[in-house]
Amino acid sequence: MPKSQNQKLKLLYIMRLLLEKSDEQHPVSVNEIIAHLDANAISAERKSIYSDIEALKLFGLDINQQRGINGGYYIANREFELPELKLLVDSVQSSKFITEKKTITLIKKIECLASTYEAQLLHRQVYVKNRIKNMNESIYYNVDEIHNGIATDCKICFKYFEYLVSKERVYRHDGAKYCISPYALMWDDENYYMIGFDSSAGIIKHFRVDKMIEISVTGEKRDGREQFENFDLAAYSRTHFGMFTGEEERVTLEFSNSLAGAVIDRFGKDVITIPADSEHFCVHTDVAVSPKFFGWLCGFGTGVRVLAPERVVEQMKEHVAAINMLYCD
User: β-strands 154-163, 72-77: how paired?
Assistant: First the structure.
């Protein structure tokens, strides 16, 4: 029988069949392999299939043989195990900053890393009811452009916006572009942030990536290296509640003992807890004093109170009083 033009692709077709259609519960028989090749205009004999399987094993594919009536060959170990793929799918699906359209695209690509049968298991667990996804479709490429700026040691320029009640965008900086030296990307409170140095202000700033548009890498080299030499990204996240800006203060907080877990979750295991009495403990920590910080404290009700400094105590009182006024007749 004369060989077809596809004959040189024989090994590749077998490899793709095994990767897509086989797993431990679904081995592919030699007859199925021959039929698959025939459907692609490739002739094959049983004996040649055995040698092809051995060649793929030498190439590095972990191919096992299951003997018996319903036996055949299957991929035993893949680059990613099924639990790892589930974790990736869950991460993509739960990421607020990835749009719904890009989420679907990424999940389909992740499913290609498993057999078609295992991909169905991934597909069944991706649906999260009423999940609010980001509306900025360009965010996926924004992240890549920011990384380019960091990798090439260059500043980036971009516009930054907020939403009005009408859902229309309003640009900060009077619509002019920011020019920032990017140094890091950080995930916090379900949002993605770019941390960089603002030369004009002489300070470190953060920007939500989904609110950045028209990002471009400039030819101007980054500055602000001195500020980032000993920069602690984790500490920055702990200090800025919900990434709200505010004047940084050293505060003393008193918590009920039952809130120890919440305090450790927020400030880390290295936080020093000082017993105040049999039912309370104190924490001294640096925070960016902001409405978000006061809101975090209010979430614990009477389980926490600010002890110092006095100006922050007064700000907390004003915050609570302002909320109380909304409910006064």
Answer: unpaired
> For the segment 68-126, what is each residue's pLDDT rounded down to a tens digit?
888 999 999 999 988 899 888 888 887 777 777 888 888 899 999 999 988 888 865 44
Name the residue range of residue 222's domain.
139-231
Q: Do residues 103 and 158 both lie within one domain?
A: no
Residue holding tokens 């009077």? 174
Is 37 among the domain residues?
Answer: yes
**What is the spatial distance between Cα 181 and Cα 155, in angstroms, rounded to a whole number?**
4
Question: Which two structure tokens, joined as six digits, stand for 17?
Answer: 């069949």
Residue 131 lies in a domain: no
Q: Is residue 236 part of a domain?
A: no
pTM score, two decimals? 0.62
Give me the residues of the chain with pLDDT under 70, please: 1-4, 123-137, 189, 241-244
Backbone φ and ψ of 194, nearest 5°: -105, 125
Q: What CATH number did the domain enclosing 156 receive?
A: 2.30.30
Q: What is the pLDDT of residue 137?
A: 66
Task: Name 226's Cβ contacts closer than 8 Å, sequence gap at least 6.
Answer: none
218 token code pair = 């400039």
User: Are 86 and 73 found together in one domain?
Assistant: no
Of 110, 10, 115, give the one whose Cα is nearest residue 73.
Answer: 115
Residues present in the chain in total = 329
Q: What are phi and psi of 18, to 5 degrees?
A: -65, -40
According to DSSP, residue 213 is labeled: E
